[in-house]
Design goal:
Length: about 130
Protein backbone atom coordinates (compact mmCIF):
# COMPACT_ATOMS: atom_id res chain seq x y z
CA UNK A 1 0.00 0.00 0.00
CA UNK A 2 2.86 2.39 0.72
CA UNK A 3 4.05 2.05 -2.87
CA UNK A 4 0.68 3.16 -4.26
CA UNK A 5 -0.98 5.44 -1.73
CA UNK A 6 -1.16 9.18 -2.21
CA UNK A 7 -1.42 9.81 1.53
CA UNK A 8 0.79 7.67 3.74
CA UNK A 9 -0.97 6.14 6.76
CA UNK A 10 0.07 7.73 10.04
CA UNK A 11 -1.56 5.18 12.37
CA UNK A 12 -2.12 1.43 12.32
CA UNK A 13 -4.64 0.26 14.91
CA UNK A 14 -4.37 -3.43 15.82
CA UNK A 15 -5.04 -5.78 18.71
CA UNK A 16 -1.89 -5.80 20.80
CA UNK A 17 -1.08 -7.27 24.22
CA UNK A 18 1.50 -9.67 25.69
CA UNK A 19 -0.21 -12.67 24.05
CA UNK A 20 -0.15 -10.88 20.68
CA UNK A 21 2.82 -8.51 20.78
CA UNK A 22 2.81 -7.55 17.08
CA UNK A 23 6.61 -7.07 17.23
CA UNK A 24 7.28 -7.48 13.47
CA UNK A 25 4.42 -5.11 12.65
CA UNK A 26 5.57 -2.66 15.31
CA UNK A 27 9.10 -2.65 13.86
CA UNK A 28 7.72 -2.14 10.34
CA UNK A 29 5.53 0.75 11.48
CA UNK A 30 8.44 2.33 13.33
CA UNK A 31 10.62 2.09 10.21
CA UNK A 32 7.91 3.86 8.18
CA UNK A 33 7.10 6.50 10.82
CA UNK A 34 3.63 5.03 11.43
CA UNK A 35 2.22 4.95 14.96
CA UNK A 36 0.96 1.63 16.24
CA UNK A 37 -2.24 1.98 18.26
CA UNK A 38 -2.97 -0.96 20.55
CA UNK A 39 -6.55 -1.94 21.18
CA UNK A 40 -7.48 -4.68 23.67
CA UNK A 41 -4.31 -3.99 25.68
CA UNK A 42 -5.70 -6.11 28.52
CA UNK A 43 -6.01 -9.14 26.26
CA UNK A 44 -9.77 -9.14 25.58
CA UNK A 45 -10.87 -10.33 29.03
CA UNK A 46 -14.56 -10.02 28.11
CA UNK A 47 -14.29 -12.10 24.96
CA UNK A 48 -17.18 -14.56 24.53
CA UNK A 49 -16.27 -18.10 25.58
CA UNK A 50 -17.20 -19.36 22.11
CA UNK A 51 -13.94 -17.82 20.86
CA UNK A 52 -11.78 -19.62 23.42
CA UNK A 53 -10.01 -22.88 22.65
CA UNK A 54 -9.36 -25.68 25.12
CA UNK A 55 -5.69 -24.71 25.29
CA UNK A 56 -6.31 -20.96 25.55
CA UNK A 57 -4.05 -19.29 28.09
CA UNK A 58 -5.56 -17.83 31.23
CA UNK A 59 -6.62 -14.18 30.97
CA UNK A 60 -3.74 -11.74 31.31
CA UNK A 61 -5.45 -10.14 34.30
CA UNK A 62 -4.98 -13.48 36.13
CA UNK A 63 -1.34 -14.05 35.12
CA UNK A 64 0.85 -14.69 38.18
CA UNK A 65 3.87 -12.78 36.85
CA UNK A 66 1.77 -9.73 36.01
CA UNK A 67 0.08 -9.88 39.40
CA UNK A 68 3.49 -10.08 41.07
CA UNK A 69 4.80 -7.03 39.17
CA UNK A 70 1.62 -5.08 39.93
CA UNK A 71 1.74 -5.92 43.65
CA UNK A 72 5.41 -4.95 43.89
CA UNK A 73 4.61 -1.55 42.36
CA UNK A 74 1.31 -1.09 44.25
CA UNK A 75 -0.64 -0.70 41.02
CA UNK A 76 -3.20 -2.78 39.14
CA UNK A 77 -2.44 -5.41 36.52
CA UNK A 78 -4.27 -3.20 34.01
CA UNK A 79 -1.85 -0.37 34.78
CA UNK A 80 1.11 -2.70 34.25
CA UNK A 81 -0.28 -3.82 30.88
CA UNK A 82 -0.91 -0.24 29.77
CA UNK A 83 2.54 0.87 30.97
CA UNK A 84 4.10 -2.01 29.00
CA UNK A 85 2.42 -0.70 25.84
CA UNK A 86 3.48 2.88 26.50
CA UNK A 87 7.10 1.88 27.15
CA UNK A 88 7.03 -0.09 23.89
CA UNK A 89 6.18 3.18 22.13
CA UNK A 90 2.58 2.29 21.34
CA UNK A 91 -0.50 4.45 21.60
CA UNK A 92 -2.95 2.63 23.87
CA UNK A 93 -6.75 2.75 23.84
CA UNK A 94 -8.13 0.76 26.76
CA UNK A 95 -11.91 0.76 26.90
CA UNK A 96 -13.59 2.11 30.00
CA UNK A 97 -16.75 3.96 30.92
CA UNK A 98 -16.32 4.28 34.68
CA UNK A 99 -14.54 7.36 36.05
CA UNK A 100 -12.46 5.25 38.47
CA UNK A 101 -11.12 3.02 35.71
CA UNK A 102 -10.47 5.97 33.41
CA UNK A 103 -8.36 7.58 36.15
CA UNK A 104 -6.63 4.26 36.84
CA UNK A 105 -5.80 3.91 33.14
CA UNK A 106 -4.47 7.47 33.00
CA UNK A 107 -2.30 6.83 36.07
CA UNK A 108 -0.54 4.05 34.13
CA UNK A 109 1.65 6.86 32.73
CA UNK A 110 3.28 6.98 36.18
CA UNK A 111 4.22 3.29 36.17
CA UNK A 112 7.84 2.65 35.18
CA UNK A 113 8.81 -0.92 34.33
CA UNK A 114 12.41 -2.14 34.40
CA UNK A 115 13.96 -3.79 31.35
CA UNK A 116 13.64 -7.14 33.13
CA UNK A 117 9.94 -6.53 33.80
CA UNK A 118 9.37 -5.45 30.19
CA UNK A 119 11.01 -8.66 28.96
CA UNK A 120 9.09 -10.81 31.45
CA UNK A 121 5.81 -9.34 30.22
CA UNK A 122 6.63 -9.43 26.50
CA UNK A 123 8.01 -12.95 26.26
CA UNK A 124 4.50 -14.44 26.29
CA UNK A 125 3.79 -13.78 22.60
CA UNK A 126 1.53 -16.66 21.58
CA UNK A 127 0.28 -15.10 18.32
CA UNK A 128 -3.04 -15.42 20.09
Amino acid sequence: ILNFCKIKPVVNQVECHPYLTQKPLQQFCLSKDILLTAYSPLGSPGRPSAFNKEDSPKPLMEDEKLISIAQAKHVSVAQVLIAWQLQNGNVVIPKSVTPERIKENFDAFKVILSNEEMDAIGYRNLFY
